[in-house]
C-alpha cells in the first residue's frame, strides 16, 4: 500500500513544522533487511499505510510514534497497536472511512476484500498534518521525561 500524494504530504509537513528538510519518503520493496532496520532506527514519527512494513516497529527508537493509515472497510484488529505497545512506541491510526465497526463485512468475497484494501490510500492532508502535530507533542513530552 502507498499513500497517494506522499511527496505533497512531505512538502506540507516541511511547511507546517518549518523544517529545514523535507521528511523522507521511502519504500522497502527493494531494500535489504539490514537497510530496513537502519531506516526504522532513525525514525521519530512514522506515517504509514497499514501493511507488512509495520512489522519493523520494534526497530523504532525510544519515544517514537507510528501513525497508521487504515483503508476503508478494513478490520482493525489491533495488529500493530499490540506490537507498538510491546515495543514502547506510541501508536495512533487514521481510518479512511466513516465507521470502522460497521463498514467491515466479513462475508465479502475475496475479490471485494482485496478491492477494499486498495494499494493507493488517499487521506485528507489536513488530517495527516494534525495527526503528526499530536505525535510531535507526544514525542517532545516523552523525550523530556526520558531526559
Describe it.
41% of the residues lie in helices and 14% in strands. Strand 3, helix 3 (79-87) and strand 4 (90-95) form a beta-alpha-beta unit. The chain has one domain. The protein is of the alpha/beta class and 147 residues long. It has helices at 6-16, 33-40, 79-87, 100-103, 110-116, 125-146, and strands at residues 2-3, 45-49, 65-70, 90-95, 120-121. The protein has 6 helices and 5 strands. Helix 1 (6-16) packs across helix 6. The strands form 2 sheets. Strands 2-3-4 form a 3-stranded parallel β-sheet, with helices on both faces. Strands 1-5 form a two-stranded parallel ribbon. The termini are far apart.
**Order of adjacent strands in the largest pleated sheet:** 2-3-4
Number of domains: 1
Written as H for each helix and E for each strand, in order along the chain, the element string is EHHEEHEHHEH
Beta fraction of the residues? 5-15%
Number of strands: 5
What class would the helix/strand composition place it in? alpha/beta
User: Helical content, roughly?
Assistant: 40-55%
Q: How many helical elements?
A: 6
Envelope shape: globular
The profile of the biggest β sheet is: 3 strands, parallel
Give the end-to-end Cα distance, rounded to a whole number of Å.
36 Å
Oligomer: single chain
Q: How many whole angstroms does the radius of gyration measure?
A: 16 Å
Low-confidence stretches: none
Average pLDDT, rounded to a whole number, is: 88
